[in-house]
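User: Hi! Is it possible to get a structure for several chains at once, not just one? Here's what I have:
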Amino acid sequence: MDHDRKGDPDQIVQPMFDFPIVGVGASAGGLEAMSTVFATAEADAGMAYVVIQHLDPHHKSLLTELLSRVTDLPVQQIEEGDLVERDNVYIAPPGFMIELRDGRLHLVPLEEPRGVRRPIDEFMRSLAQAQGEMGCGVILSGTGTDGSLGLRTIRSTGGLCIAQDPSTAKYDGMPNAAISTGQLDLILPPDRMLPEISRFFTQSKDRWIIGQSRELYNRLPIICELINEKTGLDFTGYKSPTLLRRIARRMQILHLSKVEDYVDRLRQVDDEAEALIEELLINVTAFFRDPEYFEKLRTEVIEPMVKDPASQNEIRVWVPGCSSGQEPYTIAMLLNEAAREYKYRGRIQVFATDIDRAMIEIAREGRYSAAAIGDLPERFRDSFIIGNTGSFQIAPRIRDMVRFSVHSLIKDPPFSKLDLISCRNLLIYMESDLQDKVIPLFHYALRPDGYLFLGPSEGISKKTELFRALNQKARIFKRVGHNSPLSSGVPLTLFSATSREAKKDKAQRNAGRFEHFDSPNLTAIREAFAPPFVIVDKDGHIHESSGELSVYLQSVHGESKQLIGILARPGLAEVVGEVIETTIARGEGIAMEGIEVTSPFGVQKITLYSRMTADHNVALVFIDDGQFKAQYSSKFVQRTPEDSRSARLENDLSKLRYELRITVEELETANEELKSSNEEMMSMNEELQSANEELETANEELKTKLDEIAIANDDLDNILRSTQLGIVVLDQDARVRVFTNAATAAFRLQAGDVGRQLTDVRSLIDKVDIKSVIDRAINEKKSYVQIVRLENEARYFMMRCLPYKSTSHLDSGGAVIVLNDVSELKLLEASLGLKSERLAFALSGAKIGVWEYAPETQEFISDERLLDLFDVQLSDSHDMEAFFDKVLTEDLAELRSKFEKTVTAGLPFEHQFRVRTQRGETRWIKGLGRRFDSEEGPRLIGVNYDITAQQEASIRQDLLVREMNHRVKNLFAVISALTTITDMESETKPELVSTLKERIAGLGRAYELTQNNRDLRMVSLRSLLVNMFRPVTTDNNVILPDSDLPLPTATLTPLGLILHELLTNAIKYGSLAQPHGYLEIDYSREGKLLTLNWSEHGAKVDGEPDKSGFGSRLITQSLRQLGGDIEFDWKPDGLNIRLTITIRD
Amino acid sequence: MPNFSRDLDVLILEDEALISFDLELLISSCGAKSVVCAFDIEQAREALAQQTFDIAVLDLNLPDGESTVLVPDLRKTNTAIVFHSGHAERADLMERYPYAEFTAKPAAVQTFKSAFVTALAKAQGALPTAEG
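Assistant: Yes, the chains can be modeled jointly so their relative placement is included. Here is the combined structure:
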């Protein structure tokens, strides 16, 4: 559907249905409002209701159900082709727009051209066109602006427009948008809407009556005058039926039925005139209205104009009645396009005027609702507008082509020398005699061969001598003829007091002023036959005079005031004042006789009559009473004979007549010329005023821009001064435009170098070809980033060279060099590098494996050593589970639990656990970890190292300690047992004590072997013997073999005890008791059996002593433990003992 | 404190001969019918195969294992068990074998006597044990 194409203001729409149809539109928050509204619906109000709601097309609408519950009226969802019946509620289904056409409701699928979904606007438009004054639009709660355009159309066809009071709406966007159009009749809370609507339409019959009433027609002039007084706008030439209808409507809204009441309201209430204006000035205009006609305009007017050599300097266009500006912008766009196409280089000016200041301001801003984009041809949408959300603005280059100003077509002088006038849908407002005057005005304003473009229902008022039709259908006319018949003068004072009543009233108002009302004929008669008279005011000033007064009054030179008191001759002078006073006092005329007026020529007796005039002055009439008594003086000159005198007089007269005629003609000519000049002056004035207004606006804008620029400059200055960055800005030729202090570290720049090419300035940067870097940036638009070093110092900079980017239309090119001192960073980097290496070295030396884990992302990193330690494959280095898999099952649970605690609670992690390698080797590993919280989330970092050795040592140690404990305990038990046995064998206490002590000492010596022995399990037999013998023998009396045999440590106690007994015996009784006695030991092993031979020599043996004498019980017991045996053989030389023990490995 | 009856058969399992001897003397002095000394678990099993004992005095660590392996067999014959060990802290054993008595090396005569009595009582069910 086209926006407003048929929505001509004042198009009389015959309602399709004879009952009112109410269109209700709502969006968010509308359900509630809707319920309230329909709850007040009366069963037989005689209206039909159509409800449009913003719905998600995929959503089922609850509305039908909801409304059925609050009202008894039948509520239904619209189906294609539904008839509209009164007292029914019709609901639009989701996903469709509704069109009321040919008496039925039609479903139109919702499209989305550029995201425009305005179902409420669309419906309201079709409602306006179908029902005209029988239509009513209601906008309820919602966001956005849907509905405001539609309301305008309803208003323009005379329907009723209502918006929900924003303070009662859940979402006040749509109601506010509707209110801001100014096209509302009522703003109401939902519960009052239907009652008001019902009342309005019931009274609308009365409205028709009022509309046609004679009385309103008669009072029109007064109303127009009041409007003029209050708003300065003159509507007297507008079509009366329009005015009548609109005023009647206004009265309807105000519930006024008497015209006089409305006139009073207009007088007394200041805003009423404004409100009425809004009614009258319905500004329904749009871009490319009647696109096919604009297309014709383009091909038949605009293109020829642009191509025409005669208009190569300038093209001037005027759009009177431009309202909110869409039409002039439309024409500007077409002109711009054609100019580009045909390479037109001249100036293009579009003057756009309107009497409504508010509209001019809107037009100047050039901002329109996004819905209007659809009116623009596609090819213009990208280049001529700047889009925003919900609205767009005309692009600056189009806006610059149009000059807006407030201008009355009728009162103000027109523009001139125009190539095109586009005045569409303005003339239809006017009465035909007004139109008759405007068409010639246009003719005057246009150049020869200029064009006139009118609206579809307009015409040239039969002035075919002024215009010929170029395209009748499109209403394109071409100017013909040369001179303009501007007979009534410019400016056209078309509306000055031409109305009947106005004239009369004016006359009444002017009653206080005097007028020259006589024609020359009357004056002649009066002068000849009427008595001389003067008219004076109460102060004696003469305002009028007639007749020959020299007898009564003298003339006085140099007096600007003509006072009768001064001028009256003697005789009259004395009485005239009194007469005037008396006349005024009495309010009626008097007569005074016998006044003798003396003049130089004689005395005249007169009667003075006085009369009050209509304007409260006094007329003094001089009637001669008798003959004039002449008193001649010698000064008088005799008259010359009659004939020569008359001949002379006649001669003079003809000459005078001739001169007069010439003078008059010259005067007339001069007058005409002056008029012409005046017209031109006026025109120029108009243009200048227009231009002035535009300049002022531009000036304002420039001032603001200047302020902004000043601030931006200050900002820039501050930034440059305070920055540590070295910045050099170059123009297109690589000349320095701006640089900061810090840049001088890299380039030897001074203040005077601005304007020099940078390549002429000494660069301190090492190994960089500045010229080529700059070239690439400027010409190829390529950026350069590099860390560079200064030649002579260890200073590093991050150097960037970027192409210069411009956001304005000045695409100036150039480059920007930015230097950022990173010397510190570089040093830091180097130092860190060193530290890093040291660390790596340390870690590697200590074989410490490092890992890092991010719990949030489950990222895990490990190093080589860790992989080694856990025997995990390189491919699994990021898989934490692969490491956990290597841990021994027994140790795993506790490990995981501790790890978990570190992850969640941040506790320091420390644990020892075992892992098993592929080859089955078990290692002890110690793990340490910490959680660090960084910006990127928590991170766990830890180390692991092999503690197998320590662990094993530790275990061994534990084992050792336990073993030691055990041994010690055992030894105590042994000693306890030893005590018991020794006690059994000893007879005296001293004996007990000494034997026991010796035995304990012997045992002690046996155990000395274990002191430095690494191996806990084996001891050396030879060492045992050596140890045991040492205290009681010398090198000479014991012979030991050189070989050695290992003994289990477990044998130490029993064997030690046995040897001790044998030795004690040998020392006390055996060979070692003899001076030359000695002992020979020899031992061997065979399988598990160890044999030790104990041979004593040099002893005197007398037979076999008692075996059980010496510790034999001890020996017996010990042998039991050793699994051994002992044989005694007493040889003459000494005792030989054979000892066998079983070695258990 | 009740005395032993003279009908007790005692098994001593101890690898240190002197200690074994000492124990033997002690138990004999308390009055026992017979005392058998075993020096390792193998020997002990042999002895157990030959006869049942009323009391078994067991050193814990033998050359061929821990003497606790004999406990099930001893329980079957209701033999009173007295562990005699150089390892002081074997709290886990006390928990595991609540019907056994523990003495630490070296133990005085009195200690042994009282341990024997208690162990005997437990074995004969006169005293409740944790086992129930």
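The two ends of chain B are 24 Å apart (CA to CA). Residues 9-123 of chain B form a domain with the Rossmann fold fold (CATH 3.40.50.2300).

User: Great, thank you!
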